[in-house]
């Protein structure tokens, strides 16, 4: 069973938005029980953290406290794709894969 994935690979849509700074971030889930709500919540948190890191969402811009439009666009796309990827992973675990 696959127990990790690279967030940028899983979130290919984020990379096609023209965001030059997106990067691969590995998300591990081999230590989680994805049949439990707490395991699923933790995976969701990890994927959100990875999307933030991949898109540099929390990095401050010089001269502004606001996030760049590119990082917001990247993060939104990454979050949508991450939820889809997470659903696939959980479904695979439920089926015994």
From TrEMBL:
Name by which UniProt lists this protein: UrcA family protein
Alphabetized NCBIfam families for the sequence: UrcA_uranyl
Record keywords: Signal
Range of residues in the leader sequence: 1-22
Keyword Signal: yes
InterPro entries: UrcA_uranyl (IPR030972)
Lineage: Bacteria, Pseudomonadati, Pseudomonadota, Alphaproteobacteria, Sphingomonadales
Keyword Signal annotated: yes
